[in-house]
Amino acid sequence: MMLKARKNAYFITVDGPDGCGKTTIVNYIQKRLQEVFNIPAMTTRGLGGSIAGSHIRDSILTGDTPCIPLEILGPPFSFIDTGRQIVEPAMAGGISVIADRWNATYFAYQVTARQSDIARDIFEHLLMNPATSPAYFICPDIQFICTVGIQEADRRIQARGGMLNHMDTANYSFKQDVHRGFDDYKKRYFNRIVDLDCNRPIEEVLAQVDKHLTLSI
């Protein structure tokens, strides 16, 4: 189904567990929008796109142990601030925005894995409720959700090198809960998302992305 772009621009998000290949997909979508569809596009982080959001993201990932209150309250502010400071101005100028992480990530990590009732209330009333979301939170035109096995994700995280944060080194039970959260999100909102099986070779995943972009734009 063809989408009606807001102000001739699209807001596209890519969610999934660490190690699923989000960054590769986000960069690919930007390139395809510009080169194939002749649509100006930029990338951002849903968590950490704005200046304030970047400080929140760094604070969440810094340290050996998680700060649960910051994890619960920080991301919603970052999503809203990124929307107001980055997404809305870009789209007003006709530039599409592709975000690495959005509300599905919050549902998987904070609502499901952290089992927080406060996070659930925030998600249901601020990040998903159609009666309140438009006033505070920008809903994506296309939302890709990446699926990958835990062992494969861990292998990719180790292979990319660099410093690991406490999310990367979380125990297996926590990662299971995160993956379960993404699965639950896909079941709840199946009519709003595009499910990408990122266990497959990247060429096949990007071909699926291409197919959906062609059908939707």
Number of domains: 1
Whole-number average pLDDT? 90
> Can you identify the CATH class?
Alpha Beta
- Widest sheet, order of strands: 2-3-1-4-5
Strand content: 5-15%
Shape: globular
Using the CA coordinates, give the radius of gyration: 16 Å
The name CATH uses for the topology is Rossmann fold
Largest β sheet strand count, sense and barrel closure: 5 strands, parallel
Q: Tally the helices: what do you get? A: 9
The H-level CATH homologous superfamily, spelled out, is P-loop containing nucleotide triphosphate hydrolases
Fraction of residues in helices? 40-55%
Please give the CATH architecture: 3-Layer(aba) Sandwich
Q: State the separation between the terminal residues, measured CA to CA.
A: 8 Å
Low-confidence stretches: none
Class inferred from helices and paired strands: alpha/beta
Give the number of DSSP strands: 5
Query: What is the H/E order?
Result: EHEHHEHHHEHHEH
